[in-house]
Fold:
Amino acid sequence: EVQLVESGGGLVQPGGSLTLSCAGAGFTFNNFAMSWVRQTPGKRLEWVSSIDGNGGGTFYADSVKGRFTVSRDNSKNTLHLQMNSLRAEDTAIYYCAKCPAYFFFSGGYANHWGQGSLVTVSS
Amino acid sequence: IVLTQSPGTLSLSPGERATLSCRASQRISTTYVAWYQQKLGQAPRLLIYGASSRAIGIPDRFSGSGSGTDFTLTISSLEPEDFAMYYCQQYHASPLTFGTGTKVEV
Structure:
């Protein structure tokens, strides 16, 4: 059974930083691209970032480009999202999601999702 | 690509047929549309990918169709557990985008 468990969320002040992690189990982690998708307080879903199976390709939404960095440690089956210069509009539940293929552009949907990690940006 | 879902809310009874619409602001390749179900307090769950292929474990009362700019999710006969929020998503072009959502309520 595929399991994705996020950690690292919390309350942070505007301009601050936070790193989310996602531990994967039940599948061969390095064979699949992974994504981060967030859900705003208004329930809108937004794609944030994705990374290919070997970490060679990384992709970002314009709203986070230059502020967020996605990475993975395949030896530890872990996905990370480093978030800097956080803004109030980054407040959301952040979901880690598994893609169906090695390359992100071979299948840009999510066939498994974690339970999410809440990030609140507020002073 | 902006995805607009309609209606915003669909009020139906168990056993009835639900038809959910997803309209794209520009043409999408047929194979690059997915549908998700989300229940309150839970993560989204993949229902349909490639516009019409059911994900593993999804009952056959769920079906997807459409092409170009108009896509549809149909639930042939609503079960009590189907009352939830539904989102479409396109992966034809970056950035990936999701629809505004349709709430199916009793």
